[in-house]
Amino acid sequence: MTFTLRAARADDYPVIASWIPDAPSCIRWAGPLLAFPFEAGDLETLLAKPDSRSYCLDNGAAEPAAFGQHWCLTPDAVHLGRIIVSPRLRGQGCGHALMSQLIEAAQRDTGRDIITLRVRRDNEAARRLYSALGFEPADEASDEQALFMRLLCSSE
Q: Which residues contact 123 (CB under 8 A, 6 or more apart)?
């Protein structure tokens, strides 16, 4: 299966909203600032952050395969967040494709070589993926529920 990262479009957000079935899932995905339930048509606006960019992973189907965003967290780092794969496509390589391409896009879009993210400590699959991609835990910025991870990319 071929995956291509593209800018998220307005018609993607209702599909993405359908992947979030309840309040605990919403918190795991978007954090406590996105209240559940939300209107699917409002999701694009609700997820907007200053200088953020939203992307979908396209596999040639009518609906996106995955979604993720990036925004500048600090002057020297770009943060990846709201990462989610379609429930129907989990375990098929979408997460790896999304993350690899999202890292490249974040670097290209911002010029920053430090990439950060947060992952729930109990999300073993995501933690394994992020570690395999080179992310390392940053304990000083982690808490009881979420592990803060950092990747230093080469600027070549």
A: 28
| Angle formed at CA 68 by CA 21 and CA 125, multiple of 5 degrees | 70
Q: Domain 4-152's class?
A: alpha beta
3-state secondary structure of 71: strand
Handedness of CA 50, 78, 21, 3 (dihedral sign): positive
The per-residue pLDDT for range 63-80, each reduced to its tens digit, is: 999 999 999 988 999 999
Q: For the chain, give every domain's residue range.
A: 4-152
> Which residues on adjacent β-strands are paired with residue 137?
149
Per-residue pLDDT of 45-60, as tens digits, reads 999 988 999 999 999 8
Q: Rounded distance, CA 21 to CA 41, Å?
A: 15
Phi, psi of 58 (to 5 degrees): -110, 130
Q: How far, CA to CA in Å, does 127 sit from each of 36, 71, 87?
A: 25, 20, 18
Q: What is the mean pLDDT of the chain?
A: 94
